[in-house]
Amino acid sequence: MLAIIGGTGLTALEGLTLQDSIVMETPYGVPSANIEKGELNGSPVFFLARHGKAHSLTPHSVNYRANIWALQSLGVTRIIGVNAVGGINASMGPEVIVIPDQIIDYTWGRQSSFSEEGRVIHADFTYPYTEELRRQLFAAANKVSVSVCDSGVYGATQGPRLETAAEINRLEKDGCDIVGMTAMPEAILARELDMQYANVSLVVNMAAGRSEGLITMDDIQRVLDAGMGRVRALLSAVVA
Ligand code: HPA
Predict the structure, then answer these.
(1) What is the spatial distance between Cα 82 and Cα 213, in angstroms, rounded to a whole number?
(2) What is the H or E stretch that residue 165 is in?
(3) What pLDDT, in 10s, does the model give residues 180-210?
(4) Alpha-carbon span 76 to 72, nearest angstrom
(5) Contact (Cβ atoms closer than 8 angstroms) between residue 34 and residue 78
(6) CA-to-CA separations, 34 to 66, 70, 190, 219, in angstroms, rounded
(7) Which residues face 5 on adjacent strands?
(8) Rounded CA separation 29/66 (Å)
(9) Which ligand 1 atom is at minimum distance from the Cα of 207?
(10) Residue 203 alpha carbon to ligand 1 centre in Å
């Protein structure tokens, strides 16, 4: 069973024939929102709005553990996380869709493991995204003629503020191609529970210091409006 976790710009899954809106409780608390169950393009799928239905949760206050635990309790085995990100690599500018293959985690203070005393998990995370699911995304992109970057390093920052220009220079030196605030700990939590996980990142701005002028929410919104349609087409094709 597949679930889609939607980020900024994707708080609802257009085209989802809603069958149920499930209120969940987990040992870690409540997920970001009710989990929507329905059919997309004729296939069953769950949808969860990462920041809540009203986009009220900041990246560091999302209850990632509750989200992943709840999805697994519902029988989900594959998750596609959708994120809006900034572009660091010059070839990953606004409106580009990236299916990253690596992550560097700069977040701190988040509940980032299901490990606990007596249940220590040292999950292998060499390849943080599931290759099989990434390949399904490439095939879907091909089918609906949506062009995507098939690799990239996602730098996960703490937020909610955007970065300084110097921080972006450092991220670039580290090897990051894109920067966002929510890839972690989502990816590792899915791995700890043996769930497949891949990410679709829509670049909505050039990262700090990489374009003239400042980053404005108006500009980001314009790119979200222009680009999310292609992300939706990709998601519809991947479930089919
Ligand atoms: N930095 C971090 N997160 C983001 C950005 C950014 O520039 N744009 C969208 N999410």
Answers:
(1) 27
(2) helix 165-174
(3) 999 999 999 999 999 999 999 999 999 999 9
(4) 5
(5) no
(6) 12, 10, 19, 30
(7) 48, 81
(8) 6
(9) 7
(10) 8
